[in-house]
């Protein structure tokens, strides 16, 4: 596992849209500074100064004269705080009037400064002032009236541009809760923070805190009062004071909002009389309503009316007022929804409809995303009964709203929270706090309740350690596993994954090593390299909620059995509860039956010339090059206008280089490689355990990999590469940026996909970087991750030969993967499509826009929640750019282009390659100005053993999706 003392924080790598040199600072240094600020009576502040309008700075006794425009007085920051901001883009400072509006909006860095301000405000509430623990009492450090005035000017400025609201509606609404501008404060967050602090000091208060965080309502006031009365004698005076402050906050929070005051706010709006009339009517209607259900409906309508009509409001001041009204309405709805207690299925589904619509008004989903689901979730009368199939469709759509909403919060704040969590672990809870303060909290509980009802009706029930909310769990890949349960909170990128463990984490890393099983909050997307490898190897994989992850923490470190069926139900139990049949699944004989052997008799290592990609076809796969190059050469002949030119460095050139003497050794690379596998075989015969053999191989391969990366390339090969490069690409080596794609003989076999195992180098321009890149790609099959995946599935993983596909980069607007069959949803003739913006989209587990495309329809399964993308520079290399979610990635023309190209692939590719092949294809493609480019095609490989397992079939229920269920049924 990663050790905090050894962490180095990399900040400022991507600024102003271009790649800069990374600034680094040890996390330990930041931690020491934080502790120093906490203990200092001035906190992070240095001295009180006058800051004049002309830019000059004066001492406290020398105020700014009116002749130069006057000025304001506040504290300056310590040099260390300024250095963190200037050199590392860490903004701990919370004095708003210190900032220029455009710099604080920080659009070029995805609004990081604004988000950091909110995170710091959160830390102040949950950690006794955080770095301002003593500095908050430093007199004159800031002036509240100056801060509010700055806040108003900030919002007036950014709200002048409607584009900011279109692209950052959720962020702007959230920031209004934290930036002073109208005397308001984030009462809901304060209530949760105060209860958290008390529970940390008084463990017996924990149950009350959990209730306030997970299922809040106004009865909590009586609960806290009762706790204070019963436990007063054992509490310190400071603890009693904190409980009194919490009660005061709760009373303020649950005090009914005056409709009259809200109507006054509506009347102050300038322009758009229709909006004023509709909001006034809705507010008056809300006041008249008696039932919580009707009140919630009116409030959701107010939220959405404001969002729909804001573009028509010209005044930035009126927009600010409407957004404040929206936040107040959202707070009222949050409280009222707790009062809505559905008594039957009909009422529960109506509550889900209303809260889903409210998620739109709150900014948690985008306008176009609502259009995709409103046919199912728009508030309307429901029939007396519905079939199980119809209920399942309703559940899938409403579950989608919950997942898209929580993903929005993570996408907006995730990167900055991750940075702060490295040196301040309390930051990690910020995202959870935002989710819990939104309508998603009650919507998620309602959807979970509906899922439980449907599961019972259909007999499709999960059984996962008996935790609550089991119905929110969805099976993704079928399979079964046995091993130690490892629950990881926060980032997993530095986790040392072990093959015999079952991992529960928030999001799959881009470079996952083979493991026994997976559960993730964010599934990434169905067709990422990690998901395809897991599917290929029969590794069980399920999507869970954040609450599920927390509930499973108590079982961390215990041995469990885990299974996912093809129908998507999930089972997990402790080792002691396993049946004989389940124990029998993990006998040595059972485990070894699913391995295959790579054919090496076809390989032609005597082909040692650089080859034009046009000269190869699918028949050459495994002979002179890997399937990427062979299949792309085939595609070039079939679809010449949709495929780039390319060069191939065949297996034989790599094999030639292995005959050279290995630096620091008395043998050649080839002799060293063979000696390694021969010794491993001897160790097997001597009954050495697998871990010992694996350790020996990994150590030897690490030495080999390093040596390959440093090897000297043969001069005749370099000369030939330069000649062929100019012939194919029309320019000399070093003048056209190219991709170098590893392409081994172990990829894309009929029963194994090597998706993403080996190295692809992006957009390299300089000659020496290309030459070094070739060696790095040759070395990549010998990395620990690549070796472990191969050895898990292949009987002869030692026979790896890399070729390299050299192709120019296409600066696509968006790119992704198309699987020519339905995955988890849809039929065998449908398409599963996943795209992200920029180059290399969807393959590395980005939160991609995923769709099920049939001949007639195009269903959104999930929108993208990936805030950044890769842009290819003409000068070589790549840039990190940011995007928003207010528009879909794929348009209807793109969908039609995908349908057409797939139709042609299904006809032409089998004719020219394997007429007997009837399976699906895994295709990588992209769009540049709506033109489709094909980058790769391979057979789509699924684990047949997992799909056809007799055990999995035995725990898969038989479902009658036509069964009718009465919606008047009590719940």
From TrEMBL:
Residues 626-948 form the Pyruvate phosphate dikinase AMP/ATP-binding domain. The keyword Nucleotide-binding applies. Its cofactor is Mg(2+). It holds the Pfam family PPDK_N. Pathway: Carbohydrate biosynthesis; gluconeogenesis. This is Phosphoenolpyruvate synthase. Keywords: ATP-binding, Kinase, Magnesium, Metal-binding, Nucleotide-binding, Transferase. It is an enzyme of class 2 (transferase). Its EC number is 2.7.9.2. It catalyses: pyruvate + ATP + H2O = phosphoenolpyruvate + AMP + phosphate + 2 H(+). Gene3D superfamilies: ATP-grasp fold, A domain, ATP-grasp fold, B domain. It comes from the Bacteria.
């Amino acid at each position: 596992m990663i050790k905090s003392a050894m962490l180095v924080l990399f900040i400022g790598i991507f600024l102003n849209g271009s790649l800069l040199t990374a600034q680094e600072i040890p996390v330990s240094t930041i931690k020491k500074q934080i502790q120093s600020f906490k203990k200092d009576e001035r906190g992070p502040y240095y001295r009180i100064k006058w800051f004049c309008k002309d830019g000059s700075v004066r001492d406290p006794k020398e105020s700014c004269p009116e002749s130069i425009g006057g000025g304001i007085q506040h504290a300056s920051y310590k040099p260390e705080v300024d250095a963190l901001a200037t050199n590392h883009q860490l903004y701990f400072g919370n004095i708003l009037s210190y900032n220029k509006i455009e710099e604080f909006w920080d659009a070029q860095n995805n609004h990081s400064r604004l988000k950091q301000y909110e995170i710091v405000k959160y830390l102040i509430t949950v950690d006794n002032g955080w770095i301002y623990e003593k500095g908050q009492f430093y007199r004159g450090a800031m002036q509240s009236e100056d801060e509010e005035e700055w806040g108003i000017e900030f919002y007036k400025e950014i709200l002048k541009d409607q584009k900011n609201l279109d692209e950052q509606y959720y962020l702007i609404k959230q920031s209004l809760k934290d930036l002073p501008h109208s005397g308001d404060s984030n009462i809901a967050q304060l209530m949760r923070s105060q209860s958290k602090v008390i529970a940390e000091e008084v463990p017996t208060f924990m149950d009350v805190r959990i209730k306030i965080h997970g299922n809040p309502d106004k009865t909590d006031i009586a609960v806290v009062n009762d706790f204070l009365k019963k436990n007063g004698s054992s509490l310190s005076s400071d603890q009693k004071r904190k409980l009194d402050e919490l009660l005061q906050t709760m009373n303020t929070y649950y005090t009914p909002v005056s409709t009259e005051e809200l109507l006054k706010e509506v009347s102050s709006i300038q322009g758009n009389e229709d909006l004023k009339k509709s909001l006034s009517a809705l507010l008056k209607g809300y006041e008249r309503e008696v039932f919580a259900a009707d009140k919630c409906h009116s409030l959701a309508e107010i939220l959405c009316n404001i969002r729909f009509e804001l573009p028509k409001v010209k005044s930035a001041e009126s927009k600010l007022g409407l957004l404040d009204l929206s936040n107040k309405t959202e707070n009222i709805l949050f409280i009222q929804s707790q009062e809505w207690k559905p008594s039957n299925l009909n009422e529960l589904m109506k509550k889900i409809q209303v809260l889903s619509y409210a998620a739109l008004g709150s900014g948690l989903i985008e306008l176009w995303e609502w259009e995709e689901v409103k046919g199912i979730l728009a508030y309307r009368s429901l029939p007396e009964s519905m079939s199980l199939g119809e209920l399942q469709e309703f559940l899938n759509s409403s579950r989608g709203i919950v997942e898209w909403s929580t993903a929005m919060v993570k996408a907006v704040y995730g990167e900055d929270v991750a940075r702060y969590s490295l040196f301040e672990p309390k930051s990690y809870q910020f995202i959870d706090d935002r989710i819990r303060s939104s309508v998603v909290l009650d919507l998620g509980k309602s959807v979970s309740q509906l899922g439980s009802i449907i599961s019972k009706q259909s007999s499709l029930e999960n059984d996962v350690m008996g935790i609550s909310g089991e119905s929110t769990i969805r099976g993704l890949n079928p399979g079964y596993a046995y091993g130690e349960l490892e629950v990881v909170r926060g980032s997993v990128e530095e986790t040392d994954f072990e093959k015999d463990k079952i991992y529960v984490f928030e999001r799959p890393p881009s470079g996952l090593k083979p493991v026994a099983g997976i559960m993730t909050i964010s599934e990434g997307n169905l067709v990422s390299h990690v998901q395809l490898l897991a599917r290929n190897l029969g590794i069980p994989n399920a999507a869970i909620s954040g609450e599920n992850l927390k509930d499973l923490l108590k079982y961390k470190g215990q041995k469990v059995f885990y299974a996912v069926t093809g129908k998507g139900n999930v089972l997990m139990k402790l080792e002691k509860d396993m049946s004989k049949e389940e124990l029998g699944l993990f006998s040595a004989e059972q485990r070894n039956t699913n391995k295959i052997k790579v054919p090496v008799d076809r390989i032609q290592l005597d082909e040692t010339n650089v080859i034009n990609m046009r000269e190869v076809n699918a028949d050459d796969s495994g002979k002179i090059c890997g399937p990427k190059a062979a299949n792309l050469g085939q595609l070039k002949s079939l679809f010449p206008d949709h495929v780039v030119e390319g060069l191939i460095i065949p297996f034989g050139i790599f094999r030639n280089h292995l005959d050279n003497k290995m630096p620091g050794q008395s043998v050649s690379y080839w002799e060293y490689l063979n000696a390694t596998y021969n010794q491993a075989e001897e160790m097997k015969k001597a009954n050495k355990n697998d871990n010992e053999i694996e350790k020996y191989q990994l150590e030897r391969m690490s030495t080999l990999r390093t040596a390959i990366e440093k090897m000297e390339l043969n001069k005749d090969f370099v000369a030939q590469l330069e000649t062929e490069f100019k012939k194919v690409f029309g320019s000399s080596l070093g003048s056209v940026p190219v991709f170098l794609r590893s392409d081994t003989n172990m990829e894309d076999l009929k029963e194994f996909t090597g998706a993403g195992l080996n190295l692809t180098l992006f957009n390299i321009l300089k000659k020496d970087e290309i030459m070094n890149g070739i060696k790095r790609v040759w070395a990549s099959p010998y990395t620990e991750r690549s070796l472990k995946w191969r050895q898990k599935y292949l009987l002869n993983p030692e026979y790896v030969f890399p070729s390299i596909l050299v192709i120019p980069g296409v600066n696509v607007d968006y790119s992704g993967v198309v699987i020519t069959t339905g995955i988890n949803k849809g039929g065998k003739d449908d398409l599963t499509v996943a795209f992200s913006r920029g180059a290399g989209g969807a393959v590395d587990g980005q939160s991609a826009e995923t769709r099920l495309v049939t001949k007639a329809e195009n269903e959104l399964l999930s929108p993208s929640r990936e805030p950044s993308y890769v842009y290819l520079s003409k000068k070589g290399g790549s840039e990190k750019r940011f995007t928003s979610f207010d528009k879909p990635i794929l348009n209807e023309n793109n969908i039609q282009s995908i349908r057409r190209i797939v139709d042609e692939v299904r006809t032409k590719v089998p004719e020219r390659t394997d007429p007997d092949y009837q399976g699906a294809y895994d295709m990588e493609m992209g769009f540049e100005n709506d033109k489709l480019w094909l980058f790769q095609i391979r057979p789509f490989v699924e684990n047949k053993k997992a799909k056809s397992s007799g055990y999995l079939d035995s725990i898969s229920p038989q479902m009658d999706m036509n069964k009718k269920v009465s919606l008047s049924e009590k719940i």
